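Holo prediction. Input below; ligand is beta-D-glucopyranose.
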Amino acid sequence: MMHYNTTEPEELKHWSFSETEFDPLALAKCESIMSLGNGYMGLRSAAEESYIGEKRNLFINGTFNKFDQYEVTELPNAADITRLDIRIDGVRFSLERGEVREYRRLLNLRDAELVRGFVWEYQGKRIRFEFRRYVSLAHKHEIGMRMTVTPLNGRISLSVTSGIDGQVSNSGSQHFHEGEKRIYDKTYIELIQTTTESKIDFVLGAAHRLFIGGTEANLEPKMDIDRRRVAVTYTVDLEQGQTLEFEKAAAVFTSRDLEFAEGPRLDDIREMMLAALKEQHAAGYERRFEDHRRAWEKVWDQYRVSIKSAEPFDQLAVRFAIYHLVIMTPSHDRRMGIGAKGLTGEGYKGHSFWDTEIFILPFYIYTNPPVARSLLEYRYLGLEGARSKALQNGYSGAMYPWEAAWPSDGEVTPEWGQVDIVTGKQTRIWSGVIEQHITSDIAYAVWHYYMATGDQEFMDSFGYEMILDTAKFWASRLEWNEEQQTYHINNVVGPDEYKEHVNNNAFTNYMAHFNIRLAMTYAEELRVQKPALFDRLNSKLGVEAAMDEWSDKIGRIYLPKPNQDGIIPQDDTYLQKKLVDLTPYKSQAKVGSIFDDYNLDQVGEMQVSKQADIMMLFFLLEDQFPLDVKKANYDYYEEKTLHDSSLSLSTHCILANDLGDRELAYRLFRRAAEIDLGPYMHSSDAGVHSASLGGIWKCIVMGFAGVRMLGGALHMNPRLPEAWEEVSFPLYWRGHRIEVHLDRTRISLNTDSEEELTLIIGGNPVKLTGALQLSY
Ligand code: BGC
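Structure of the complex:
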């Protein structure tokens, strides 16, 4: 049972949430949503003691490995560090037996600490346990754990086995060779594992300290080295009321780390790991935790969003989103992207999708632009894979992979998915071949970043090349339709993945057109204003020839227009498909319930959408469509959209707000916020939903506060939900931080900028230097 808005502890009000009853059949929920991490690594929050059905995951960003030729590359599950085998008077401790009282597992978002406590009663013994854990933001290779055990009614003999356990896999796929294991000075445990295909060395270490009744006990452990596992066992006798404090310091390094990018030597990595481990071990949990806590203080200064709402859940929801966005983002290393489940589960194999550019990047563009830049540079490095994908498919330029892993990997989408309930066969996944809009989504994101930051250096080094080469892809992708005398884009999957092999998905066509138009504008500008750069790009990409092709084709790209009822067809055949009663699926408790009754081919023949499609188009290219067209399409498509993708609700929320339906917008926001944090106990089993978390921030800042970049200008058009009194957040624009505070009628802006900034508020240009207050 999950508890949000718990009022206790008072100092963590709206900063924490708890599980108040242990449920062995819903382990995955807390494992995912209470995950810890720091962008370098992600640690799923499995309990210390082990349970059937648990997933003990530790992922290190960027360490992709391909299990064999029949599988795609994925983030391997590193050896487990967190498991403790605890025995009391010879009986293995487990919450599945005995009585459990005062149970609470809590994620403290403010300090990024996981805390679990309870009293366990078994065979007449009552024992109090408390566990704490963090993954350090201050020292990125470090995990800290602490357990205290106090017998409450008599003496106990307690043994704890703890170490590093490489007997784990990714749902059965074993990504590692058996490596070397060692214990130094009976204290420092080391386990090395090397990935089977990418040959990445993982060097993991752990060491313990024990205090009994507050005094350090230098006990000799029993040592145990086994297949893929190394551990030590400590045994102590505790009197009634006497407390054992058990600390575990752990360190993780890999040969993929940026420090070793120039060609690592395993011995150097081992040395660094051991030095880091010893330092952490000597300092102890509390001191190292303090470094971590301070690092998080800075995070909250950087990203803080405050909401005064009649519904305290709203404040918690945005903190939860920001917490997860921070722990999933590899801001330390531009060679890495963000996984669709962050680093919180095996879902989507650690791969990056358009989720990053369209749903998460805005958060970084407006609150920490250097991180946005690093994420875009990941895509720049990915040009290598995108170019080979284009070539393999017979196109020019850069065709970005639908799913991306290591930048040079190219396409890594798996080919086969879930069972087809009609045929009993596995369903073919087409997105890796024909879900192509990702290419223009990335170009759009480059443009968005540039417009908001003015980062010319980024554009000169990376951005122009990305926009030009993606436009080259689209020009080669267009298909001439003799009958209609227009260029079509046939056989694609648009954002709505319930429609496969469609022609002229409106989103895809408009975004391709946008991409080519943008390239034309920039190519022209470069030729005149930056001839040296133009020449360099021209010799690399053949820009001059491409410009001829673009001017020839741009005016003849087919852009679906509203029909007599004002509806833009999602694709050539959508509006002719069968209408079905979607009521049972619209009110579903779990997503994808339509597949209990139909298979994908059947769903493909109905007017039903998995997620926002045309609405995405309205959001991204907002100024190309009049309000009445948006409204007619919203009403038409919202009814047919099942929101079976977590990416959907936030977009519909923003559109509903734009169209003036605040109440619906707020309801959709709440539903979006509840995807991970809500009451559904299985929605996050495979990991949290990264894009939806970015979407929560978008609903608040781009939705209710109405922040948009339009044609290079910063607009604000606030419309707060009824339940909200105030909201404030930081906003970066052209290198300056603006503190925004909104109440129901007034807007206050404060900036550190010496320069005058121009904003458009409620449609009117406003000049800002220092502070400004106005009514809206
Ligand atoms: C959605 C995609 C999304 C992917 C990863 C799919 O279910 O339809 O739009 O990119 O999940 O989150």
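Residues 340, 348, 353-355, 495, 497, 610-611, 645, 647, 691 surround beta-D-glucopyranose (CB under 6 Å). That is the main takeaway for now.
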